[in-house]
Amino acid sequence: MTGGRAGTWWRVGAAVVVLVLFAGPLLFMVSGSLREPGLPPPLTPELLPDPIALDNYGTAAALVGLGRATLNSLLVAAVVVPLSVLVGSWAGLALTQLPARLSRALVLVSLVALMVPLTALLVPRFALFRTLGLTDTLVPLMAPALLAASPLHVLVYWLAFRRIPAELYDACRLEGTSPLVVWRRVAMPLVRPVTAAVAALTFVLTWANFLDPLVYIYRRDLFTVPLALRSLAQLDRTNYPLLLAGAVMATVPALLAFAVAQRFFLHEHRGAGWLGR
Fold first, then answer.
1. In terms of pTM, does the model score above 0.85?
2. Which of 33, 71, 175, 195: CA 20 to 30 A from 8?
3. Structural domain harbouring 151
């Protein structure tokens, strides 16, 4: 009982530390977004500007077409997130069903692929998409989802599916259950918290992706949120409240994604807790 209480206090303490580290910058970002543009920065921290300029948000959105950019980013995320979960879970489950030696070899290949810098792939990927005539479209931003977006997602699912007792898979085989049914009705329901984590992580990484849109997107009507914020960064330094207002609007969807995932963990961790035993 004492050990359980100590573990709870450690978790609470860690959560408080993380909250302080992240809440401070967020608070000052919101506060700075409410200052009147055109004024020099305050000499001391100012939590509540006077007067409050709420119209900064509308001005920032109108200057760079943030509404259109938000729709583009949501469209990309709506394709990338479910497709990444689908491909990553398929690959992770397939790895658990392979012979041990082959499975270890493929896991090693995935680890090596995970260590390859993304910048090393920019030139060949750009050449490929340009040859296919897909540059200046949103397709290059969605295509990585066909490979689960990242080898990390495959490895996460592989670890989660490995914790399911092998006897359960054997029973499915004896019943003649197809692999697709095993994935849909047996494996995925038992790793729902993992799916929530992968989906939230994929959404945030896709939402914040700046390098790929910078390389592939040229037309302003196809800009994503990071490109729109880059345009706001070109304003005069005294107009930094407009940039902060855009940053606040860009941060809200990411916070909502983590909030939804957190609620999912709270509802599901007890049902899946036996996997870690």
1. no
2. 195
3. 64-276
